[in-house]
């Protein structure tokens, strides 16, 4: 009796046998996502442009299996198509796509060029849509799957500009937040559109997770810490659980959701 009662709950977070594709997997936050997925048994393919950086980032786990690299430029539809076809040939059908890559240019809020504004919109929302669109035939062939987009707290709230008074080099630009807000809406749209096909589409919005280079400026980190209810900045491992959950069977009845991992930043 106990065995039958517990059986449906035993492997809720087990990713054994699941193939996860992730863009931007060797960056500051991506490496935490990849490590969490690997720790729970997933096979992970990092889609990116810099194989050398991939190998350096994951040098400790390169020999354990389950981790692979595929060359891909998410700004290019032909490159995305070729990468997904190669993944299908080498590793089989994917179960999960994580859209984590981002690119852009320009920072000064009232001096962005048209080209800079458009590039940043494409660097978050456009690239996410491009990868989502191209992975759909494979998920459909597999009978369903999961797509996880990465947005930001700045897709939900405006920056507290006083945090940047002494550190203008770190100012979050307007086209970044606009693009991340678009990613959240894109998530809701496709969750509704793809639900009948057993494809769940969700989103994760990280809060203050400054990179190692930004953390070298202790004063700016202190500004972030004092504005956050938990009193600290996020670490990559703080984000990993969200992606394990949304990649696993535990989230099979969750779609169209934006999971905010921000230490409480957006509740104030």
Protein described:
This protein has helices spanning 2-6, 30-39, 51-57, 77-91, 114-141, 174-194, 212-215, 218-226, 236-247; strands at residues 19-23, 43-48, 67-71, 96-99, 145-150, 199-206, 258-261. The chain is an alpha/beta fold. The chain has a single domain (13-261), classed as NAD(P)-binding Rossmann-like Domain (Rossmann fold, 3-Layer(aba) Sandwich), CATH 3.40.50. The protein has a seven-stranded parallel beta sheet with strand order 3-2-1-4-5-6-7, with helices on both faces. Helix 2 packs across helix 9, helix 4 packs parallel to helix 5 and helix 5 runs parallel beside helix 6 (174-194).
Coarse shape:
globular
Structural class: alpha/beta
What is the CATH-assigned architecture?
3-Layer(aba) Sandwich
Order of helices and strands: HEHEHEHEHEHEHHHE
**Rg:** 19 Å
Number of spatially distinct domains: 1
What is the strand arrangement across the widest sheet?
3-2-1-4-5-6-7
The number of helical elements comes to 9
CATH homolog superfamily: NAD(P)-binding Rossmann-like Domain
Identify the CATH class. Answer: Alpha Beta
CATH topology call? Rossmann fold
- Unreliable stretches (pLDDT < 50, length at least 5) are none
Cα(first) to Cα(last) distance is 47 Å
The helix fraction, in percent, is 40-55%
Strand content: 5-15%
Strand runs, count: 7
């Amino acid at each position: 009796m106990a065995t039958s009662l517990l059986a449906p709950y035993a492997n809720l977070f087990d990713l054994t046998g699941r193939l996860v594709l992730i863009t931007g997997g060797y960056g500051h936050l991506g490496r935490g996502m990849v490590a969490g997925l690997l720790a729970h048994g997933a096979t992970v393919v990092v889609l990116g442009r810099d194989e050398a950086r991939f190998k350096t980032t994951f040098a400790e786990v390169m020999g354990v299996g389950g981790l692979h690299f595929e060359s891909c430029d998410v700004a290019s539809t032909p490159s995305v198509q070729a990468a997904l076809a190669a993944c299908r040939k080498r590793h089989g059908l994917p179960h999960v796509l994580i859209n984590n890559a981002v690119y852009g240019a320009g920072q000064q809020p009232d001096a962005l060029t048209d080209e800079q504004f458009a590039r940043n919109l494409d660097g978050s929302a456009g690239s996410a849509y491009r990868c989502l669109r191209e992975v759909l035939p494979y998920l459909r062939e597999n009978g369903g799957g999961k797509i996880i987009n990465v947005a930001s707290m700045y897709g939900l709230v405006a920056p507290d500009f006083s945090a940047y008074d002494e550190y203008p080099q770190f100012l979050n630009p307007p086209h970044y937040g606009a693009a991340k807000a678009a990613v959240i809406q894109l998530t809701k749209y496709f969750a509704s559109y793809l639900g009948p096909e057993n494809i769940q589409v969700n989103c994760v919005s990280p809060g203050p997770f400054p990179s190692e280079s930004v953390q070298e400026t202790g004063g700016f980190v202190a500004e972030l810490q004092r504005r956050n209810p938990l009193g600290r900045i996020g670490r990559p491992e703080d984000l990993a659980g969200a992606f394990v959950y949304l990649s696993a069977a535990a989230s099979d009845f969750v779609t169209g959701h934006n999971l905010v991992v921000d230490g409480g930043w957006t509740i104030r």
